[in-house]
Specification:
Elements lengths: L15 E2 L1 E5 L8 E5 L2 E4 L2 E7 L3 H8 L2 E6 L5 H8 L1 E2 L13 E2 L3 H5 L3 E2 L8 E2 L4 E14 L4 E13 L19 E4 L2 E4 L13
The structure holds flavin mononucleotide.
Flavin mononucleotide (FMN) binds next to strand 3, strand 5, helix 1 and helix 2.
Length: 201
């Protein structure tokens, strides 16, 4: 028997992968890095949930090019170093208590910039997966929430060599360890439980 309790969580972050978006503001030399976890893929399109108050959203409205960088477990402390910052020169009032402006999250987090091939924003060299992408759609989540659902079509995918299965476009699922965000805690991937009937490896 599974007895249940009705609860009222303040957030519903039961666990989603962490992604670091790189975006550029036209005219700015340094690209911005935005940690998110509202990200999932449908075919070759990523669906991203972004606060309208983020610099990422502001940049994407001006230039719809981005890189979706996926970190692994080793990078959680670098991500946490930039977590309290925003690329927005003027920190939105509701964030002022907990956030500060940081124009160069690369140095703060110890990230290295690597030029992209099909989009303006650079990739994050330390991230094992880097997807160059283009915004194809933006839908307001809810005017009151101040968030937007962004669709981003993946144009090009780069993976660290250690993840690539030679001679294929497959990612080595034994080598790739995504990082998950669960109620604002960082987790690494656990043990493999089984395999789906459609798996290609
Ligand atoms: C692990 C992690 C996951 C986050 N997930 C999201 C998210 O899914 N959407 C979002 O808008 N903000 C998310 N945030 C908060 C933003 O990173 C934060 O508002 C940041 O200041 C935005 O940076 P920017 O203003 O420079 O774009 C997350 C933060 C962390 C550390």
């Amino acid at each position: 028997m599974h007895s249940t309790l009705a609860i009222e969580p303040s957030v519903f972050y039961f666990g989603t992968p962490v992604a670091l978006l790189t975006t550029v503001k036209p005219g700015d030399e340094t690209a911005n890095i935005t940690p998110i976890s509202s990200a999932w893929a449908l075919d070759d399109t990523y669906v991203l949930g972004l606060s309208d108050a983020s610099q990422a959203m502001c940049n994407l409205r001006e230039n719809g090019e981005l890189v979706i960088n996926l970190p692994d477990a080793r990078l959680w402390e670098s991500i946490e170093r930039i977590a309290e910052t925003t690329g927005a020169a003027e920190v939105p009032s509701h964030k002022r208590e907990k956030y500060r402006h940081e124009p160069d999250k690369w140095t703060l987090g110890g990230f290295t910039s690597r030029g992209s091939e099909s989009v303006l924003p650079p990739r994050i060299a330390e991230c094992p997966v880097q997807m160059e992408a283009l915004v194809t759609n933006m839908t307001p989540l809810d005017e009151e929430e101040g968030a937007t659902i962004v669709h981003a079509k993946v144009l090009r995918t780069h993976v660290h060599q250690a993840l690539a299965l030679p001679g294929t476009s497959h990612v080595d699922v034994d080598a790739w360890k995504p990082m998950y965000y669960t109620f604002r805690h960082y987790f690494s991937q656990g043990e493999r439980l089984g395999v789906n009937f459609r798996a290609e490896q």
